[in-house]
């Protein structure tokens, strides 16, 4: 049966953590792994999560299956969090939220739903998160890359991106990052989002918004601008949401798929299809993470504590960005690195070739993705000068 299966190489990013851990040097820096980390390199359990978990464990009386749409209370709570109180699409019954195993689960179910609906192709700005292509391709969707990120300036090729967007038709899908673009950190501005939505209004394509870093750019309301505007103005869209980063629930695998339809009846049909896709895949999502999120968001004390904790994580990442840009600026890295301060979220791209990425690893024990993507969480007061000195050396050679 399996004799003809070739051996695949290990996942490049997951393999990076292993290489970092095996590196015996006393001074080394991990800029690879895509998780939030404190200044001393920990990814702690949030206090709000610990308290919600304690409450849940003491109250829990059964492990019986949860409904396929997820833990009780999760869907309403996450919809209020993402779309805000009293969003017109929710009031009109045009939104259904389904709990999924992480943002990846939402992407996979969403992609299969798009495939069933007859989506012709998915267009995405280049570069995009490394797992988008495999997740969408597994559902039988081809991903076509169009210009987005300008590596020379650290900004966007917005005009080129818009010309591609203007060519999309009603059976096309535009994959957008809801905020904190992975891997570049370069987000669309509100004015640019407005232009993309106006193009969708004219041409009838459906956005697929992938939102994995809610609260990590500015704040929970400002960050939700794209999702809220799309749900308000467009008849159809899908939004995939991850609670991995902002709730720190990575291994619990909790996320959501938002279905936005033109009418209540359309959403009912989309809902039935998405639930049948989930049933044929993993049946129902793991309950624990969804229950934690519901418990936090339904309790005003826990929600207030969680919002403070998200704001603290976001502030720390912004501070790390400033620190890196200031130190690199003092060493005259130029405008390309200065752009990093204007970007959002955990990630940015360094202007390094693959050979230079390898040189950083070999000479300095600095680990990052082969593309030059760095996680700013790994930069701090203790290591920033060492990092910048290494970069200066490698960029010179
Ligand atoms: C852009 C993007 N989308 C989706 C995800 C999926 O996250 P999850 O771990 O919740 O499946 C990630 C996680 O890194 C991400 O960066």
Secondary-structure arrangement, i.e. CATH architecture of the largest domain: 3-Layer(aba) Sandwich
- Write out the CATH superfamily name of the largest domain: Type I PLP-dependent aspartate aminotransferase-like (Major domain)
* Biggest sheet architecture: 7 strands, mixed
Mean pLDDT, nearest integer? 95
Helix content: 40-55%
First-residue to last-residue Cα separation? 50 Å
CATH class label of the largest domain: Alpha Beta
Bound molecules: pyridoxal-5'-phosphate
Decide which structural class fits the backbone: alpha/beta
Global outline: globular
Order of strands across the biggest sheet? 2-10-9-8-7-3-4
Strand content: 5-15%
CATH topology of the largest domain: Aspartate Aminotransferase, domain 2
**Cα-atom Rg, whole angstroms?**
21 Å
Q: What's the number of structural domains?
A: 2
What does it look like?
Helices cover 46% and strands 14% of the residues. It is of the alpha/beta class and 397 residues long. It has two domains: 12-45 and 308-396, Aspartate Aminotransferase, domain 1, CATH 3.90.1150.10; 65-298, Aspartate Aminotransferase, domain 2, CATH 3.40.640.10. It has a seven-stranded mixed sheet with strand order 2-10-9-8-7-3-4, sandwiched between helices. The protein starts with 11 loop residues before the first helix and ends with a helix. The structure holds pyridoxal-5'-phosphate. The site of pyridoxal-5'-phosphate (PLP) has 11 residues, from helix 5. Pyridoxal-5'-phosphate binds at residues 34, 102-104, 129, 182, 210, 212, 242, 244, 255.
């Amino acid at each position: 049966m399996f004799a003809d299966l070739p051996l695949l190489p290990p996942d490049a990013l997951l393999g990076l953590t292993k290489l970092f851990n095996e590196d015996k040097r006393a001074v080394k820096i991990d800029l690879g792994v895509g998780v939030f980390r404190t200044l001393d390199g920990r990814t702690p359990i949030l206090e709000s999560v610990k308290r919600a978990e304690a409450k849940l464990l003491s109250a829990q009386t059964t492990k019986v299956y949860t409904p396929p749409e997820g833990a009780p209370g999760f869907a309403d709570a996450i919809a209020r969090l993402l779309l805000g109180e009293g969003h017109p699409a929710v009031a009109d019954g045009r939104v259904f939220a389904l709990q999924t195993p992480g943002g990846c689960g939402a992407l996979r179910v969403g992609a299969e739903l798009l495939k069933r609906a007859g989506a012709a192709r998915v267009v995405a700005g280049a570069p995009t998160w490394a797992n988008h292509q495999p997740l969408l391709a597994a559902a039988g969707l081809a991903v076509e890359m169009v210009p987005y990120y300008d590596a020379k300036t650290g900004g966007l090729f917005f005009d080129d991106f818009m010309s591609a967007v203007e060519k999309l038709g009603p059976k096309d899908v535009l994959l957008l990052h809801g905020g904190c673009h992975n891997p570049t950190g370069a987000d669309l501005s509100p004015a640019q989002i407005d232009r993309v939505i106006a193009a969708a209004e004219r041409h009838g394509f459906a956005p697929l918004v992938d939102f994995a870093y809610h609260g990590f750019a500015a704040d929970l309301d400002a960050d939700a601008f794209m999702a809220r505007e799309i749900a308000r103005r467009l008849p159809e869209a899908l939004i995939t949401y991850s609670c991995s980063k902002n709730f720190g629930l990575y291994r619990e695998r909790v996320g959501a798929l938002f279905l936005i339809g033109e009418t209540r009846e359309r959403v009912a049909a989309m809902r039935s299809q998405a639930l049948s896709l989930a049933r044929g895949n993993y049946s129902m999502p793991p309950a624990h993470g969804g229950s934690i999120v519901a418990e936090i968001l339904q309790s005003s004390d826990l929600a207030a504590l969680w919002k403070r904790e998200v704001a603290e994580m976001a502030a720390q990442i912004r501070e790390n960005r400033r620190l890196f840009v200031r130190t690199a600026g003092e060493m005259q890295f130029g405008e390309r690195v200065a752009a990093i301060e204007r970007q959002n979220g955990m990630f940015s791209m360094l202007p390094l070739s693959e050979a230079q990425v390898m040189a950083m690893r070999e000479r300095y024990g600095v680990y990052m993705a082969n593309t030059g993507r760095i996680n700013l969480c790994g930069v701090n007061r203790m290591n920033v000068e060492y990092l910048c000195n290494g970069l200066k050396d490698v960029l010179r050679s």
